Amino acid sequence: MTFPAFASTQLDPRARGKELGTARRAAITANLAGYGDLFAAAGASPPQVRAWGERALERSAAWSPRLAEELAGIAAGAGLEPWQVAAVNARTEILAAVAATGEGECSTSVVLPGGGAAPRTVQTWDWHDHLREAPMLWELEPFPGHVVRTFTEAGVLAKIGVSTAGLGVHFNILRHRSDHAELGVPVHLIARRILDEAATVEEAAALARSATVSASTVITVVTGRAAASIEISPAGVAVIPNGPDGVLQHCNHFLDAALAEGERHATDRPSTYERLRHLSEHVEELGGEDPTGRARAMLSHGPEHAPVCAHPDLSQPIDQRWETLATIALDLPAARLRVHRGGPCQVTEETWQVF
């Protein structure tokens, strides 16, 4: 099983968005409906969601007019209102606004082996199982000669990805006590601008610091020379570089000491610490050249062990059900993604989708 893929042909942001919206209309509409169900289960009313979507669109337009144009184009192509597409892109912010909680989420490992060898990366992407049809792969050219390839959700501008500038990003959600309901720039748009515009860790961090946010996340940026986890929250932005051994690993809690004082996962999602311990105990395998070996090193199931590979508890409501929907490795020299549909327990040499 593979994820649907789409390659844009348009350079103009609005035209590119409309092309995607037209081609993926059914999937974008279904994703909007799925998020409507998730928002309702988490306690957000339809009028609140609309107000937050409109606010997210305003903040996006002020921070990046080009990306706001692309959102509007997607809406036009999909037959939706711009605020609806903005709400899907701002799903992290809306869930933070209602203080949504739950056990689950992603684990990321990066190893820089040195000696000119390419970075060795892998992450699990956990999300709610009723949204398992939302992911897609998207290739676009935001500027002439600059190609971005991203694993994202239908209608969302970016998530995990690589660019021909030699930069890649991994993506994990965070929760902080400073998160609030006055919606800011969606963190998924920050990931997209980093893929579009940055070639170094420093440039990526500057873009992250330029956005006023209302929700937290960590974008782990990788280049051939360096890596850093850029922890973003309304309380500030912190940059956690790779260690002297070239290792950088992140789950769903803050590593920066100052930001960690406002940590919410300490009580809401304690398994994040177990998952990070699992990664640190398997650095050798996670630093291997073979992406299948790296993915298998992520294999660990709860409740007996760290739940790196998640499977949903169908007895729970939809906002409390988590599944590892994808396992992803970055190939920076080729500017390609290796994507497996499902968790590490299902990975084989043949199940990788190269995009």
From TrEMBL:
Pfam families in the cross-refs: AAT
Top-level taxon of origin: Bacteria
Stretches assigned to the Peptidase C45 hydrolase domain: 122-336
Signal peptide: none
InterPro entries: C45_proenzyme-like, Peptidase_C45, Peptidase_C45_hydrolase
Name recorded for this polypeptide: C45 family peptidase
Protein's organism: Actinomadura luzonensis
